[in-house]
Every structure is written in C-alpha cells, then in structure tokens.
Amino acid sequence: MNNKKYLAWFINPKDEKSFNKFVLVNNLLINKISEKFEKVYMINVEKLKFFSKRKIKLNYQLNENLKFPSNIKFFNPTNPKDFDYFMVGKELIGINAFGRSFNDLKIYFLLLRHKIKQVKISNIGNIQSNTKVLKGFFWKGMLFKFKHDYSHKFTVLLSNFGLVPKMEIRFITNMDIIGYKKRGKGLWKKIFNYFNFHFAKEFILINSRAFDEIKESKIEIEENLIVLLDAPLEDPQWRNFRNFHSKEKLDDHYRCLTKLLNYLSKIYNKNVVVCLHPSDDLEKKRKYFPGFKVVMYQTKENIMKAFIVLFFESGAIVDAILLKKRIATLFSSCLDENQILHGKKHSEKVGILQINIEDEIKFDKDNFLLKLDKTKEKYSKYINEHIKPDGENIAHEKIVRILKERFFN
Fold first, then answer.
1. pTM of the predicted structure, to 2 decimals
2. Right CATH number for 4-207+389-407 from 3.30.1330, 3.30.70, 3.90.320, 3.40.50?
3. pLDDT (tens digit, 9 = 90+) per residue, 314-328?
C-alpha cells in the first residue's frame, strides 16, 4: 500500500508571539499554498531537537488581525517516537522553516531517516548584514556566533557527507546568490560551486513576498501618514552582543525620537503612526509614544499610506522600497555598533538617507523632501536585484507549480 503524500511546514516558534510573527510574514504564502493542496500539516519541531527545554505546548492562538486556512492541521510531536507514529502511512514534502543550530541536527537526522524531501523559501528580499563581536563583549558575541554562524557551516558540511539531508530546492529573491554561483572568485569558491557544496541542490529565483502582497493588495496607495517602524531595542538578538540599556538611556532615546516625530508631523501636517515589531511590547511602547497611534501587525497597511517612512533596522522596509516611498533610516547612541551598521547598509546599498535623532532638528521642510525624493532614484537597481528579480511573476504561483511538478506528479 502506497503512503499518502502531504505537504508540511516544519516550524519552530518559541512562543505564541513568535508563532504570530511567522504567520504574519508568511500569511499570503500560507493561504495560497493551502488553496492548492487538500491538506497541509504544520509541525512544531521543538521537541524533536537535542536538549529541548520548552515544556509549554504551543496552542497556535492567532492575533485577531490574522487568519488561518481550515485545511491546515497542526501537530506537536512530543518526541521522535511520536513523530515516527505520525509518519505511518504518510510521505511528507517539507517546507523547512527552522534553523541550522547544533540542537537542530537531531531534527535533520530524523528527516533523513524518514526520507523527507525539503525545500527552503527565502523570499524576504531584505539586506543581509553580518554581525560582529563588539568590544568588551567578546565571549558573549563568540557564544552567539558559535550557536548560529558556526553551527550553520557545520550543518552544511554534514550535508555534503550525506549525514543530514540537503534542501532539494531553495527559492531565493537575492540575485547576488546566483551571481556568486556564476562568478565564484577564487579557487576555493570555484571548487565549492562546481561540486555544489551548498546546502541546497538547486536555487530557483522568485520575487519577494512584498512583491506578491502589494501586487495582490486591494489597499489604496496614499501619502497621508508619517510612519515609524520602531525597533525592539532590547530584543534578545541584540542582547546576545551587549548588555541591557539603562532606563535613562532608553528614555533619552525616545525623547529625541518623539521630538523628531512631532516636528515632522507639524511641518508636513501629517498624523504619525508607530508600527511595532511582532516581538515588541505594545503596552510599554504606548507609554513611550503617548501622543501617537501605536499598532502591531499593521505595518504593511500603514506603509501603503505613508508620506514618509522612518525606520531603524527592519525587514519590513522592503515594502516601502518597492513602493518607492520617501524613506530615512534612524540611529542614536542607544543603538549598538551592529544596529547602526545594519542601518548604514541601507544607505550604502539603496541610497536611503540617514538621520541621527540626537542631532539638532533644523532642516528645511522643502529641502528635506527634495533629498528624500532624490534618493528614490537609486531604488530601482535594488528592487530589480532583490525584491522583484523574476519580472512580473507571482512568487506563490511559481512555488506551487514547481512543488506540484517536482514532488506531487
């Protein structure tokens, strides 16, 4: 008797908040894929890892702004044996949405044992930046790099010995990866590319999720708001490299930021909306911005209505670049060197204007707009190479078509 074949997302959210973030950024893709398959599984791999410490079962509660297709079935395996039992009578094609840490190796061993073919969907379209170890935090930074950067390289190495499975396909929006494979400067890179020592057997170019979402959105594009994409300054990823900020430092940062927002709101006669990262603290941020509307899970809608978009380090800025909005990236002494460098990357690669919020506010409103409009001329190259490198093709349609042709025929 043949096993029945299903598509499955393999996910690893640490809590309900991170699960909501996953659904938020993949909402369109999840819904469109689910329309084309009778049943899709979403499998939480947390208990399949080495040294899993989380005891709370994920309840998959969604924010009221999000929705889920009815044909998605959730599965929380409690251990590898539980997963083995689940696999009886099934064959899975997996969408890999978890990591490559040392703890994750146990998951890969399990997937190899069950001969589960995987694909990776890298459709963000944002600027990727390396994170450096900061002075005074050597061991803290090195521990983070060991857990993330070096473990990733080790997993790729194991895949080339057949000890963990490679991705069958990695869908990408970054043309630099295609160029890297073609150019391969240096002997080692030429050997690496010739023998395809990459973690994926094949790379397929697609447009970004921002392109799909804006292409299919029914929201009217307007210029009514000053929109701030605020940063969760105390997010764990940054604290892997430094200590907590003092309350005084944070208060001073938000005082300067609020002053700038009030100034822009006044000279352009536009209301301000502060959009938060899904991992941020909504109630806490409302206290920092008492005079402004503060929202979560509504970033895309507000960017579409933006007159000016201000941001710190944020992947959501891809939407604003694609829409050719007026954009400025912000920084202050409250940001560490990595955060500032990540913002600077946007200035270097896309031409986006940088503003130190601690500087005296004295710019002329017409000249400032002129500068912002001038930088938009540089957006096109980045859009064509990172956001919509696949012409006018809808990414989710291409992904579904290839999945069906390769694995379900």
1. 0.88
2. 3.40.50
3. 778 999 999 999 999
